[in-house]
Batch of 4 targets.
Target 1
Amino acid sequence: MKRRTQIALVVAVVVIGALVIAAGSPREATPAGDAALHRTPQDPRLINPGQLTVGTGTPVFPPWMLHDDPARGEGFENGMIYELAAELGFSRDQVVWERGLTFEQTIAPGPKPFDFAIRQISVTAERQQIVDFSIVYLQPDKAVIALADSPVVGARSFADLRRARWGATIGTTDLDYLERILGIQGAAVFDDQAGTFQALQAGLIDATVAALPSALFVTAVQVPAAQIVALLPPDPNDNGHGLLFEQGNPLVEWINEGLQAIIDRGVVNDLINQYLLPEGDIPEISR
């Protein structure tokens, strides 16, 4: 079965616990006299008042961010952040990118060197126990990536997919999807996505999974010999992508209001259409 590839935009899903203040949070209570500055670029609750500090990865990849340069604003994620910043009252030069953490460090509990992070972070119940999230702004399809001679090419069922050697990146919902949804046993685990894709190209694994936008970049640039073999059903434990905050961050409500505003105006949908939608039909495997 084939269908026109789509990416569903989740408009108003508020992550449970996003506004709950965690006991023992390293953020101190704001003095009452500073309340007049709340929800302004000088908000004393910001990591560095006067700027919006946004965490992301090193490197960053298209179509999420282009040219490995978040500050250029070209790409879905950084394009969205600059629109959000403007909605909140920040000028472009007040957005500062913090790129010092790995993905695992970003999603781990504890103090963060940013106000929030954006790097294709999926909202899951497990992660909600240790960090806070914004409302969900994107629900991408999951794609199977493989070389032309892979045993998953032409697969029509999960049983067909289980005959292959799989690999994914540690700590990601991709790996969790392989194990829980597809029932893959003994999947190879790699430290980062680059390692996963290198293993695919070298023939060490037969296939991997990734969000569709990432799969588009992989097959166009990183592993051009690979192809998107199929789309898979949504992960019931993956609510979509959200901005990640240190647990107990008091800025979540303000950021959510700005994010909802640009969603309502169609800004996020325009960015999806510009950066994240492929041409043509891709086969779908439902079970």
Target 2
Amino acid sequence: MNENSSSPTRCDYTAAFLLLRLFLGLRTLIAGLEKFEANKSFSFSNYTENMNRVATAIANYSIIPGWATQAFAMSLGFLLVIFGAAILLGIKTRAALFFGGLVYVGLGFGLMAVQEGEGVAWIGMQVLMFAVALTLVRNNRFALVADKHCA
């Protein structure tokens, strides 16, 4: 393709997707690992304590029932770590992006329910990045386990 051409090349799309994949993978993985931390220590007991506190706060200040906040909170960190690692490593990237994006939609819903507008905006930006990554996923050239392409 001509250097003076203004249309993006396949390499441009591959580079754009790789940047999004790295950012979203790292962001999702770190967000999951943070759930296991308290006082610079990582453990399952910290996770249980942190997530019980979050679930209780959301249930107390929103219309979402306690059983739903508890179920979401107790699985949240594990889902974020799994999807973050999968995105980062390129393991079933399309599925990992889609389901990781759904987790962020769930986080956004929880923040909407407690009327945390600024947090909703930040989560909304994350969801937008997941959506853009999904539109560029066909340019995923560096993956451990490739996806089957949608027709």
Target 3
Amino acid sequence: MLSRFLNLNRRSFSDLSEQEILALAISSEEDDARIYQAYAEGLREEFPDTAKIFDDMAAEEGEHRRWLIELHQEKFGETIPLLRREHVKGFYATKPDWLVKSFGVDEVRKQAATMEAQAARFYLAAAERTQDASIRKLLGDLAEAEAGHLALANSVVEIHASKDVRKNERAAEHKRFVLTYVQPGLAGLMDGSVSTLAPIFATAFATQDTWTTFLVGIAASLGAGISMGFTEVASDDGVISGRGSPIKRGIATGVMTTIGGLGHALPYLIPDFWVATYLAIAIVFVELWVIAWIQNRFMDTGWTKAIFQVVLGGALVFAVGIIIGQS
């Protein structure tokens, strides 16, 4: 959860000046050009036609960068502020090109499409915030260009996958649903289920008092839910990332975090300590497997990786709680 708080150190997009918006656009175009060139080199031997597409995209990103620099020189002079994507809320970190290439042409296409969709949203949002007519025009033109790149990136897979029948509108709706509700809710459920294991079971085995354990569980669950909910709202306004309303994401995260903790806290309403504990352990087991299934179903996480991350991690936290409670 600490890593999520670190997003609070990023600048809000709404606070950027027109010069900073241009600086961010310049650095983004530079990064995208390098990434596309790396994709092209990695695919050239096996997929030369696809490599040529990425060569062209890299060249066009370089042209966009030149336009932006010329406009910055005209409006603000030679010194360009150092501002990158990682400095601004709402930008996803781009996967390393070597990692993307290792998963093949389809993964490269999906990553490129994500980059272009985010770039188009960025330019549209930036154009709406600028007052200078020449800056507004260039940003609007670049938004249209990035939208064209998005269509080109989506077409890459069609060269190699004849059975790929994609319904763009339904895919976009599904992606938005996943980004707005599933991903934040899953993060909350994982945090609530795993992070509350240690305090609940440490209290249970230290006191063997079901009511005290229940109160600790309620406090831990509600506290984690409120914390995760507000963190999600503050971390990303959704304008550039396309993740949807921060309020909806915050509610999804907070509610699922609370539910994740309450699952193994509520059994301690049962007065008998061992009955309550065995029931809580069974619920924990079910929770962890449900989380692994959601990761596999909606987040394209392999079963082995999901089990390792969730089930094994949860088991270790559970064991820590018992050991501390019995010491």
Target 4
Amino acid sequence: MSLRPSIDVPFAVGGTPQPRGRSAWFIVATASAACIGIAVASGTHLGIVLIVLPVFIAIVWQSPKTMIAILPVWMVLLGLIRRLTPGGVNITFSGDPVLIIGPVVILLLFFVAASRGAFERRTRFASAVGVLSVIALFEAFNPKQGNLQAGLGGLLFILVPMLAFWIGRTLLDDTLALQIVRTIAVLGLCSAIYGLFQEFRGLPPWDASWIQSQGYAALTVGTVVRAFGSFSSAEEYAAFLSISLVAWLALAHKDTRLFPPAHLAGIITVAVALWFESERTAIFLVVLAIGVMAASRLRMRPLGVLAGGVGAVVLLVVLGGHFGGGGGGSCTTASCQLSNHVATGIAGPLGSGSSLPGHIRQTEKGMLQAFKAPFGHGTGSVTLAASRFAHSRTGGTEFDPGNMGIAFGVFGLIAFFVVLWQAIKTAYLSAVLRRDVISLFALGMLMATLFSWTNGDLYSVCWLIWLFLGYLDMSLARTRAEIAAMPPPPPPISWRRPGEQRPLPGT
């Protein structure tokens, strides 16, 4: 008897046809929502695991693609579910068992993908991702990070999301990928509405209790508490709003957009929520993504696409300096303080009021660590696992190059830059050749999350990046194989003059 998971077909007993299409989706969604509701009502995070995880495992076993479609919803609601559960205010990396559900599901989907040929037709890009993954696995046993627990915890933050690359290569198709893009757009809109409510109507009791228990300083701008939506941090909230805005813009294609006023309202709502979240790096990267998407849509050459992205950022800085550079400090309202915080950073991205120079210096120090410690400090050294299990003195730099230098050393840093180059190259070629919603969204998502692809704190975002990268890699490999398999064009017709001798074959 084979132990391999079944193919994505409805499970039938006794020959009775099972529901398909929308009815099947309704049943799955209702059952999943009921399980989550019961788990939350059970009052402990362990109860959530005991109820939700078996259901998700069953879905993975029966229909992996269905689980891929459900997983973004779970990841987005994870922080809110933990806060709504009694005793769930301790939401950091604290040994909370509910955090393991997402990684377990990704691991199971990875095994399914591996059994269905995820490692076949390996491209240079796939090989580079494989090398970086192996480095991350071996670095989990690096003694410099403190202990093995820190290394294994680091794998949950860095390696497990990367495994989604192989899932995307095998289990993602055009229909499912487009469905996920739409899901991201809708989830981002719902999160934006919730975040705006938090910002201007006040925090619900469960969110207020979490802030009081955590004392999370990054949530405050002056005297105002930043919104964080349904997520575990304001950083993750901003990152998801960024990719949601990219999704709304990609879906503006005439074949996929909603009724134009409704579609425009969705774009504006998410953009406004991102602005008032007051994460200036996210705004710069979203503008970069919009410029790159527009240039790719016009099928510009790589230099033109780069110029489009950089030009959009420069235009943002110029407009910010012209309209919003004042940044007065006498504001008392939330909207005024948050807007001034953003405007000051945009008008002077390298000025004293900006945190960008500090981030750059930290990233440089992290990259230099790759040469001081060529074999790195371990996978867990740049994640919350180090402070949880090892109390390590090392820490993350917020951007991938610095983190890779600290965690993986010089070899990991080189491997990361190879992956970075191959990822952008693959996304660009896909966007230029296909010009469809999926490829444009994937390219925009890469730009909107640039240098945050291995940031394990972004639970709901990082795995999606690698999922779509894997999908684009295999899609481009198939396209190249089809072109190579095409018969050569017929030889051109040659005309002979009257009386001219016919040329010999092969001449």
